[in-house]
Amino acid sequence: MTDTNNLFEPKTVFVTDETDRNKIFKAVYNKLYQLGYVKQEFIDNIIEREEKYPTGVSTRPLSRDLPNVAIPHTEGKYVNKRLIVPVGLKNPITFNNMVNPAEKLEVKFLFILLNKDPKMHSNMLAKIMDFLAQTPVADLNELFASTDPNYIYDFLDNNFEN
């Protein structure tokens, strides 16, 4: 039986060699929509929101040896479930920095947030930042380099504080 508090599901872990950000969003959306986890408007909203409010996160403060990540998300009204959708990128893609939107970051891993409760949004972001800060750099590099969805799920399920 699946723990209802779990922020990850094996069937919503993605690995892609796609280099177009919007095509990645569309592939993830198609699966999430099919599962009933997001509403139809989700795809347009996540693309538009990424343009206006970039979600790239520089990992430089943690380690110069870590690739950057991004944490795309939409408003809660477009989702039906609380979940973090990990997306491993075989090729780095460009996102603008969340803190300094003019700065472009090469990103190697996405944590797409699904969250219908606005009060929990900053909590989910904080959990991701804590995970990045508390996980050894070598382990994170192994996670970000993995092309095995089962490994990614198991690693996050075992190391992420729900």
Give an account of the 3D structure.
- By secondary structure, this protein is of the alpha/beta class.
- It contains five helices and five strands; from the N terminus they run βααββββααα.
- It has a five-stranded mixed β-sheet, sandwiched between helices.
- α1 (21-34) runs antiparallel to α2 (42-52).
Short description:
The protein is α/β, with parallel strands linked by helices and 162 residues long. The protein is built from five helices and five strands.
Which key phrases capture this entry?
5 helices, 5 strands, alpha/beta, 162 residues
Helix content: 25-40%
Structural class: alpha/beta
In spatial order, strands of the major sheet run 1-4-5-3-2
Beta-strand segment tally = 5
Report the β-strand fraction as a percent range: 15-25%
**What spatial form do the alpha-carbon principal axes imply?**
globular
Number of H/I helices: 5
- In round numbers, the mean pLDDT is 93
Q: What oligomeric state is this?
A: single chain
The Cα radius of gyration reads 14 Å
Architecture blueprint of SSEs:
Blueprint: E1 14-16, H1 21-34, H2 42-52, E2 56-57, E3 68-70, E4 83-96, E5 104-114, H3 118-134, H4 137-145, H5 149-159
Parallel strand pairs: 1-4, 3-5
Antiparallel strand pairs: 2-3, 4-5
Helix pairs in contact: 1-2
